[in-house]
Give the backbone structure.
Amino acid sequence: MNISTEMLHIRVDDREAHPSVTPIYQCSAFSADSAFFYSRKANPNVTELEQVVAALENSEYALAYATGMSAIYMVLELLKPGGSLVINKYIYGCSYKLFQRYAKRIGAQLTILDLTTKDGLRKLPTAVDMVIFETPTNPFLKDIDIHDVSEAVKKVNPQALVVVDNTWATPLFQKPLMFGADISLYSATKYFSGHSDVMGGLVLVNDHELYNRLLEGRFYSGSILTPHSAWLLRRSMQTFSLRMEKHSSTTALMLSYLQSLPFIEHVYFPNIDGKQLLGYGGIVFVDIRADLVEHYKVFTSALRWFGTGTGMACVTSMVAQPFSGSHASMSDQEKAEMGIGKGLVRLCFGLEDLEDLKEDLLQAFQTMESRVGVESVLDPA
């Protein structure tokens, strides 16, 4: 036997290895008698992650995708050409633009409603096929009653799909499927990852037929999560509840502090009603004083412990301006209609010490204020 042939077929017998964690199955194909067949369809790392998130959500099925946006896109693929899509007025900028473009491409009717109000629900079109919304919303963290929306939609069309982007609530604090939603989806890039080192998306459903349609779409589109990304996310999920506890406690203690600062006009935080939303993580929005808005970059440059990248919901604190960041793809008119101005700031609290974050924000705001020639109203002591 030629050594080149032998070399190609040498394999370690790992049946007795018993690793303490599931190893990375970095392979594209499996043997013909394997349950996994091909990594574009399924992979042990992807399946394990799906099982973990399904357990958290208490759902029958979960599907992992390459990114949160690819998860949203594959859900949109369930919408028939010429159908009717309803989205909430307050929503992530890239999702907003995707809905516009997708609806135009397939000739679907796109209706934008304020689903945070009873009046918005009464305006549901009679031929609605799919309703998509976030709760709490991005931005402003407005609350939407999932049960009320689902009930109203099903009265209009029992076959219509109610889709909830649950990224910011997480399944620890809110389970959309329990309140009548057909689909719960996530950007796993945020809290599930928590370390700004991996991207992913997840879709959860209870209906078997709906699961098969999504599974088929993922297989033929090739939008499945990679084994390495799945492994990283699974690793992150081991500390998920601990991280969320720290995010939540820091944010709760930060609220009164932010409200006391003279640089801030309003703090946005969701309503934790104890029924639908049981808790909340580490993201808030604030309106800064109008005279400070033009000096936003002075504020971010002065910060020591807050990063300014596009990440959020991770172990390190972040600051961002939705106008030029998460909603930059929208026109100025669209942003104005959503109520997004340059004075709206998003703060994401990580795992740093609470007092360090308070001191950092205070000195950055004071530096910002000094640029407008206004004497600080705070006692330096």
Remarks:
- The first strand starts at residue 61 and ends at 65.
- The chain is about 35% helix and 15% strand.
